[in-house]
Amino acid sequence: MFSKKISNISPSFTIGISTKVKELKNSGIDILNLSIGEPDFLTPENAKNAAIEAIHNNITKYDAAAGNKEFRKAIIDKLKKENNLEYDIDQIVISNGAKHAITNTLIALLNPEDEVIIPKPYWVSYPEMVKLTGGVPIFVDTKKENNFKLTKEELIKSITNKTKAIFITNPSNPTGAVYTKEELIEIANICVENKIFILADEIYERILYVDNFTSIASLSKDIYNYTITINGLSKSAAMTGWRLGYTACRKDLAKIISSIQGHLVSHPCTVSQAAGKEALISCTNDTKKMLEGYTKRRNLAIKMFNKIDEIDIIQPDGAFYIFMDISKIKKNVNFKDSFSIEVCNVLLDKFKLALVPGIAFGNDDFLRMSYAADINDVEEGINRIAKYIETVKK
Ligand SMILES: Cc1ncc(COP(=O)(O)O)c(C=O)c1O
Predict the structure, then answer these.
(1) What cofactor is needed (predicted)?
(2) Is any atom of ligand 1 closer than 6 Å to the C-beta of 169?
(3) pLDDT tens for residues 122-167?
(4) CB 268 less than 6 A from any atom of ligand 1
(5) Number of domains present in the structure of the chain
(6) Are 312 and 330 contacting, i.e. CB atoms less than 8 angstroms apart?
(7) pLDDT tens for residues 45-67?
(8) CA–centroid distance for 41 within its chain
(9) Domain endpoint, select from 245, 260, 283
(10) 293 and 261, same domain (yes or no)
(11) CB 366 within 8 A of CB 340
């Protein structure tokens, strides 16, 4: 009766957990929620004021499909200054969040049955987005000893004559791993040789605990032509609800993305765009303060997890997640289908702590904890995990 495309689409795991947490909270049960990938900081004042001003100035009519020109100019300046990337105005399309920027890009690129490589573990929405846009997700296993970063060899093995694109998430959600320049060059050159488009999801790029970040598109002219840089303001400026993301890519593709967007949604909300432009222009200090907050929590989390022998964590060099290997307790846990879901259910029911099961990201031996939360909650959350581990050790 309905489209075949939706027959094998799963509901979002993370949204499902948030809904369960809300229900429990509404019934009076106090849950410590470290499951969501949303900054606990507030949208910077300057950005909020710019939106209020836009309303008073009646910036409330249709605008360009690719997004507000001044905002696109601010994005161009940001990409040049921070990412060593040169784009013209007609290479930028502002969308309703990075999710929408990715979806527009997939619609623009994919023919039915085209394959899109998704390194595991992956951000939950990629596979469903690929399926919804008519493509076929091809999952590639990566190794824990490489912090789950894709290698050239793993990539080569997964390429077929149907491969059209690949997702590279840098920094990664769920692992927080960050690729070095050398690692990216190896992968990106293979993509260029095989005419594979790179969806470079760099939404966490400003939340970084190492010195250097390399934008894939900055690596060479050829790589630039095959790369669609995806970014947005949800994470870096705590603007999740404003729904602002963007693509930066070659002109012919940007024109198609803009035209798709024009037909589907016209453009993102003009008032949101006014706030987004201001966030890029004048909120660098707010982002810096948020990073200071994340850094403290990250360091605390690393210290505490290092004391729990049964848990190994992936070195979090960016983003605000801890991806923890709990496979050492697997033999002590009774579960039917999924080990990580079982552990998350016990943590939620008995320890009132919400985390995300690794199976949501394609790895059932892991759990993801977000530290985009008050530092006391991060500490309490890890204490509860440690207590749970004590109960299963016995
Ligand atoms: C890797 C990654 N890409 C994209 C997004 C979507 O961001 P937005 O809120 O801008 O749609 C998220 C949000 O969790 C994410 O983790």
Answers:
(1) pyridoxal 5'-phosphate
(2) yes
(3) 999 999 999 999 999 999 999 999 999 999 999 999 999 999 999 9
(4) no
(5) 2
(6) no
(7) 999 999 999 999 999 999 999 99
(8) 17
(9) 283
(10) no
(11) yes
Do 68 and 131 reside in the same domain of the chain?
yes
The CATH code of the domain that includes 140 is 3.40.640.10
Same domain as 297, residue 276: no
Quick check: CB of 245 below 6 Å from ligand 1? yes
Q: Report angle CA 71, 51, 22 to the nearest 5 degrees.
A: 110
Provide the 3-class DSSP secondary structure of residue 178: coil
pLDDT attached to residue 394: 66
Token duo for residue 387: 């207590």
> At which of 283, 314, 342 does a domain end?
283
Backbone region of residue 319 per phi and psi (left: phi > 0; alpha: psi in -120 to 50; beta: other values): left
4-18, 168-182, 349-363, 365-379: range with lowest mean pLDDT: 4-18
**Cross-strand partners of 136:** 115
Supply the range of the domain harboring residue 170. Answer: 61-283
Among 93, 123, 243, name the best residue to mutate to test ligand 1's pocket (greatest count of ligand atoms within 8 A of Cβ): 123
> Do strands 115-119 and 136-140 pair parallel, antiparallel, or not at all (unpaired)?
parallel
How far CA 266 is from CA of 61, 70, 78, 125, 357, in Å, comes to: 11, 17, 24, 23, 37
Q: Is residue 161 part of a domain?
A: yes
CATH number at residue 388: 3.90.1150.10
Find the largest Cα–Cα distance for the chain. Answer: 65
306 with 246, same domain? Answer: no
CA 325 to chain centre: 20
